[in-house]
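User: I'm designing a mutation panel for 2OG-Fe dioxygenase family protein and want to avoid disrupting the core. Could you give me a predicted structure to guide residue selection? Please restate the sequence first so the numbering is unambiguous.

Assistant: Good idea. Sequence first, for numbering, then the predicted structure tokens:
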Amino acid sequence: MSDVPTHDAPLETLSTSLSERLERDGYLLAPAGEIAPVFHDWCAAHGHRPRDHDALARYWNDLAPDRFMGDGGRYRRRRHAVFSAAFGAHALVRKPHQAHFQTTDFNRLNGGIERHFEPVEDGALETHTFAFLCELTLGVFGRCAPGIDWHVEMHQFRIEVGGDITAGLPTPEGLHRDGVDFVAMVMVGRHNVGEGISHIHDLDRRELAAFTLAEPLDMALVDDTRVLHGVTPIVAEDASCVGRRDLLVLTFKRQPSDHISGV
């Protein structure tokens, strides 16, 4: 990305650093302590008052049950949205709502069918946190794959456990790839849960890393063409109460430039 205003220098520095790490290793963990100060600088540079992460997180409180669980599980709630972004863009352009589809090559549990989820609410997309995360990920992935226009899908996930929900599986399909180019996973919040450890493996299934997205704005990025990722089940710290793990996922898949409009 070129001709970047100097007031966005901290964001550009972070984007460059993350892209170098992602290109080197195929994955990375960027803790909230690395992300949050740049977010606050970004807010100040754009004339926004830095707001509490709850401005985005509250949109996880009205997610619909996932009706397409091949294991019959009742532990997942979600919403979905689809976007485009031309190379060099700083923001996403929302597309008409459409189904989410993965082949069974990438999702043996739930793939092979069109899955129609409730759309992400407009208010979530209007938060400063979401705008910042879009600009950050577009910058990182644009450096890793210059000249590419993107088809982007957003997933809001809530995994629940406890009460009458005995199993909370963030990735019920196990270690997997998503069938895209890049994936960003951002922690929105955890309540009354333990475990939920993220594992990264190479394509020969050798483990490369294990870490926990624990704090709001903890972020993991993966090159989906180079690594597998998965998350262990969550457990309720107090089994008499429902615990939850809320995650924002953005997937980036290259598309022909003539599919881009409105940027």
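For picking mutation sites, this is relevant: Residues 192 and 237 are 5 Å apart (CA to CA). The chain has one domain: 6-259.
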